[in-house]
Design a protein that fits this description.
The protein is an alpha/beta fold. The chain has four helices and three strands; from the N terminus they run H-H-E-H-E-E-H. Helix content is 32%, strand content 14%. A three-stranded parallel beta sheet has the order 1-2-3, with helices on one face. Helix 1 packs across helix 4. 28% of the residues are buried.
């Protein structure tokens, strides 16, 4: 999981994207609490929200505001985030991030 999050950071940096987090991520200390999206965190309304491995608990989605587009990447095709998604990719988040990193020429040190 730590490796996947490092990969996410690298891909996001390459794309000029901002990373938000779930409680699991902030509780693990991988991101500061001020980046936690949800009812106990911050609210965001991005143009594009890509949920890598986010199931979509109501506490998290409560902080999403009104994103213009939602893409969810999860191995569970029926996770709650599916209801919000414009596009749902049923795949492993780490595998997809690895492929994106390869195509973008991103390496994780």
């Amino acid at each position: 999981a730590v490796e996947t999050f490092a990969l996410l950071r690298a891909v996001a940096a390459r794309l000029g994207a901002t990373i938000g987090a779930t409680r699991v991520i902030t509780d693990a200390g991988w991101m500061h609490h001020d980046r936690q999206i949800g009812t106990t965190g911050v609210s965001v309304s991005p143009d594009l929200y890509i949920a890598f491995g986010v199931a979509g608990a109501s506490q998290h989605t409560g902080g999403l505001g009104s994103p213009k587009h939602v893409v969810r990447v999860n191995t569970d095709h029926s996770c709650p985030m599916t209801a919000m998604a414009d596009l749902g990719l049923v795949t492993d988040a780490h595998a997809l991030l690895t492929e994106l990193a390869d195509r973008l020429g991103v390496s994780v040190a």
